[in-house]
Amino acid sequence: MSMLRLIPRLDIKGSNLIKGIQMEGVRILGNPHEFAFRYYQDGADELLYMDAVASLYGRDRLLDIVRQTAANIFIPITAGGGVRSVDDAVELLRAGADKVAINTATVSRPELITEMAHHFGSQCMVLSIEAKQVADNKWLTYTNNGRENSGIDVVEWAKRGVALGAGEILLTSVDREGTRRGFDTTLVKAVRQAVPVPLIVSGGMGKPEDLLEVVLEGGTDAVAMADILHYNRFTLEEIRKAATNAGIPVRCMA
Amino acid sequence: MNRVTVIDYGLGNLLSVEQALRHCGADVVCTSSPELIEAADFLVLPGVGAFGDGMKGLELRGLLEPLLIAARSGKPLLGICLGMQLLFENSSEFGLHAGLGLIPGIVRGIPPLSNKDGSRRRIPHIGWTGIIPPGNRCSWDEPLLDGLPQGVSMYFVHSFMAHPTEESQLKAISNHDGVEVAAVVSRKNLTGCQFHPEKSGAAGLKLFENFLRLG
């Protein structure tokens, strides 16, 4: 088993860190950099920035936040939100991001995935999939931050995305997001069995033990978490300990 | 003063390397100027991308000769990721390409199949992996790793790996799905790491601090 990656997810609106429930009704929590720096010091393996409104208002704020983060936080940074082209991705990478997550633009123009992989390598292209359950073992892909139904089956889309060059998948369960009800392990398992690339699951982590099922049964490589950390309900150290106690390897710190 | 020149040969993002070195107290410039390579106290050869493009990037900017002269002058040089691989004799990435030939050995793809059960290995190797001394050595024999615990995790992103000819020049390995990957190599003033210290948190910064003490 490779090392489980623990990834704080920071959803951004303008200059602020926000948190919603099922991607709606967002609350403003504060300065994202302060949260990010605390998570870095607490041993986060990576950081994930998602700009919730970049597609409406542009990515300038996100670029500023990434730039500020890269100046004194030395772990991998994935950034996304409103990226529509290779040029948009170049801006984020120049600001200090290591990987770029794209959802909406890949659904409307799937060849963007291949363009990204050719320019930067597939390890740089994170396919962000927002999934809503519509029936037993059936999920559909949503775009525009969980607002629009594309009608595309999540498992089929994951396979196609990887065939086109996606190097990693960020799988967000819109149903679970912000609910603290635990991850949708059935969804994760379905996608895990369909594609070989690393998988980051997001949405629903309420307590440290929630990651055990999604790792051991779901087979995820990484867990993104927001609510559990932003509201100071648990620390990364407690979460790492829960993983270690269950025999899941995590990063050995200096 | 710790004047560090990060060699810009058109591949990959140098921002993180520059900022991490600055964080460790170095006076850093990113440049493709041969004069600044000569003037530097320390050289860093970073790089993300394909081996052939890397050699071409150095050649097009007229950096091969200055780099070889600097390397032979005894100046501390750290190659990172592709930058480490370029120190070797050749690589088979997208056809056979000659490298700088400063460290004996070759660069080849990570074997796609596990020897143990024939299962497919995950390639590229991306993520945090622990590094340990090679063979049965019980300590690092390398100043670059001073103060770092054995098994400490570093952040890797690569599909190719180096095979140093001289066993003594291999200083740390990491185990990726059952294959031993050369993680740190050194030969006299030349050092290299396959992982990204600039993305490896406190452990990576420690390695940079050690590097800045080599002068």
What labels describe this entry?
heterodimer, A: 254 residues, alpha/beta, TIM Barrel, 12 strands, B: alpha/beta, Rossmann fold, four-stranded mixed β-sheet, 6 helices, globular
| CATH class label of chain A | Alpha Beta
Q: Beta fraction of the residues of chain A?
A: 25-35%
In the CATH hierarchy, the third-tier topology of chain B is known as: Rossmann fold
Arithmetic mean pLDDT of chain B: 93
How many independent structural domains of chain A? 1
Q: State the distance separating the first and last CA atoms of chain B.
A: 10 Å
Summarize the structure.
The complex is a heterodimer of chains A (254) and B (215). Chain A has 254 residues and is an alpha/beta fold.
Describe the structure.
Helices cover 37% and strands 28% of the residues of chain A. Chain A is built from 11 helices and 12 strands. Chain A has helices at 32-41, 54-57, 60-72, 86-95, 104-108, 111-120, 154-164, 185-194, 210-216, 227-230, 236-245; strands spanning 5-13, 16-21, 24-30, 47-51, 77-80, 99-102, 125-135, 138-143, 148-153, 168-173, 199-202, 222-225. An 8-stranded parallel barrel of chain A has the order 1-4-5-6-7-10-11-12, surrounded by 7 helices. The two termini of chain A are 21 Å apart. The model of chain A has no long low-confidence stretch (mean pLDDT 93). Chain B is α/β, with parallel strands linked by helices and 215 residues long. Chain B has a single domain (3-212), classed as Rossmann fold (3-Layer(aba) Sandwich). Chain B has 6 helices and 13 strands. In chain B, the strands form 2 sheets. Chain B has a 9-stranded mixed beta sheet. In chain B, a hairpin with a 5-residue loop joins strand 5 (90-91) and strand 6. The longest helix of chain B has 12 residues, at 201-212.
